[in-house]
Amino acid sequence: MPISRSAVAPALTRRDALRGLGGLGLFALTGGAGTLLSACASGQSSAEVLADPESAALVDSTIAVDMHSHAAGASGRPKPTYDLAERIRTGRMTAVCLEHSADGPVIKREPDNRIRTVRQAEPGALWRHTQRRLAWFDDLVRDQGLRRVLRPGDLEAAHRDRAPAIVQAIEGCQFMEGKLERIAEVYRRGVRHLQLVHFFRSDLGDNQTEPADQGGLTPFGRDTIVECNRVGVVIDVAHATMKFVEAAAKVSKTPLILSHTSVAQGQPTQFSRRISPEHAKLVASTGGVVGVWASPTLQRSLTDYVDAVARAVDAAGAEHVGFGTDNSGFGATPAVWDDYRDYPLIVRLMLKRGFSPDEIRKIAGGNYLRVFNVSVRMA
Prior knowledge:
Blueprint: H1 14-18, E1 26-31, E2 34-39, H2 46-51, H3 53-61, E3 65-69, H4 84-91, E4 95-101, E5 107-109, E6 115-117, H5 125-144, E7 147-148, H6 154-161, E8 165-171, H7 181-188, E9 191-195, H8 219-231, E10 234-236, H9 242-251, E11 257-261, H10 277-285, E12 289-292, H11 302-316, E13 321-323, H12 343-353, H13 357-377
Parallel strand pairs: 3-4, 4-8, 7-8, 8-9, 9-10, 11-12, 12-13
Antiparallel strand pairs: 1-2, 5-6
């Protein structure tokens, strides 16, 4: 078990980080690579953090990946809402796992903020929806000059070249409509990361937010995992019940990603999207990674986000935690970390929170890189 960071002094709030309230000077933290001096003056912007050579060196040495994002209108907007490539480049990140939700046309966020199924899909409707969104991704890559991450080594190359990139993903496999061959089809269209279930009831198995009545993972769900392994696709078990994940861990030949959640201190309530520490340990036991989301209902600041990362590390270990912000996935309310230009502030706050430079490199993207390269190499 990792050493708990609960005794470390709390980091600055986002408000403090963005307002000019005076300087706190420099602090020194010792990591595996030696002593790192990093500016932590209250009121710093990302540009000011990067003005410190040692802080900039740490930021630049990380292959930084958001494992789950709907940024720039990826889920359903007809046109991108902003220049995603520019934000990734300015924040000195490497890539985001960018996705639409396959069940988007049949789900709706209700006034109580719970997402519910509002109608049944007509045959073929969700496949047509995914085809339209795949075309949207083609346009985004072309118009913004983004790279697609397609094979082992592509993330490393994007980082080396300072080229903003996406790992194209789909949230929920409802587009399959019982047809395994569609995994190969979306693979040919650039998809390398599939989240097996979402909100709409799935023939792959049970999700966390509806009554679990399929015994966890179904036979078709097992076949889907085998096909993902064969083709070379990252397997994401976000939204799945723990019983589903237990079965998936026995079937998959590659580590599992649980891309976006929050680790509860105890047992989550029924239909919660949070997971228990035992659930996080289960994902870690596959060699996998738990992504921490930037939920505005659970967090109020970037400091709170980093605290949530620390809780996940205490449960699963620094080798099994990553970023999975769910950027633009909370309806009209923005994610707590909703702008990739803020990545240097995240690094600074993680240092303040007690993470070593080596731990930051793993959590920021090194852990996802490891799983991605193993998963796509399976093909």
